[in-house]
Design brief:
Elements (H helix, E strand, L loop, with lengths): L10 H23 L3 H13 L4 H8 L3 H13 L3 E5 L7 E5 L1 H21 L5 H19 L4 H9 L2
Antiparallel strand pairs: 1-2
Helix pairs in contact: 1-5, 3-4
Length: about 160
C-alpha cells in the first residue's frame, strides 16, 4: 500500500497515458469496422443512451456541438446512425443507432472486452474490481458528483 504522497506524482501521467493508449487500441480496432476513434466513442455513448440529441452527445463526449453535428452527418452517410424526429417535440432531432450499428454491437463489445483484458492482464479479478472502483471514485470526485457511497468508502479506507 502506498504511503501518503509516495508515488502519487505518477498518478496523473499514468491515468493520462493509460487513456491515450486505450484510445489508440480502440482506434486500431475501429478501423476494421471503418470507424474513427471519435465515431467509435459516439457509437458507444449512443448505444448506452439508446437515442440522444446531438447536444446530449456533445455533453457526453465533451466536444463542441458543431463537431458532433459534423460527426453525425458523416456517420449518417455511412449508415451507422440516423436522425429521427422526437415524438415528444417535433422540433427536436434524435440521433439513433441503425440496424448496422446494432448488428455490429457484438463486435464492438468483443473488441472492448479484448482491449480491457489486454490492459488489465496480470491483475487478479479482485485487483480489477478495485481498480475500477478506485477510478470510479476519482471520476466522481472530479465531476463533483460524489455519492454518499463513494464518500463512505473513501473515509472507510483512511
Amino acid at each position: 500500500m502506498l504511503m501518503k504522497n509516495e508515488g502519487i506524482e505518477k498518478f496523473g501521467l499514468l491515468v493520462h497515458d493509460s487513456a491515450r493508449l486505450l484510445r489508440a487500441r480502440f482506434e486500431a480496432h475501429g478501423r476494421r469496422l471503418g470507424l474513427s476513434s471519435a465515431q467509435w466513442r459516439l457509437l458507444v455513448r449512443l448505444l448506452r443512451e439508446g437515442r440522444a440529441t446531438q447536444a446530449r452527445l456533445a455533453d457526453l463526449m465533451e466536444i463542441e456541438p458543431i463537431s458532433v453535428s459534423r460527426l453525425v452527418t458523416r456517420m449518417e452517410q455511412a449508415g451507422w446512425v440516423e436522425r429521427q424526429t422526437d415524438p415528444q417535440d417535433r422540433r427536436i432531432k434524435l440521433v439513433v443507432p441503425t440496424e448496422r450499428t446494432l448488428e455490429a454491437f457484438a463486435d464492438i463489445r468483443s473488441v472492448a472486452a479484448s482491449v480491457y483484458d489486454e490492459a488489465m492482464a496480470g491483475l487478479s479479478d479482485h485487483e480489477r474490481r478495485m481498480l475500477i472502483a478506485g477510478l470510479t471514485v476519482v471520476l466522481n470526485n472530479l465531476s463533483g458528483a460524489k455519492s454518499a457511497e463513494c464518500q463512505a468508502r473513501a473515509e472507510g479506507d483512511e
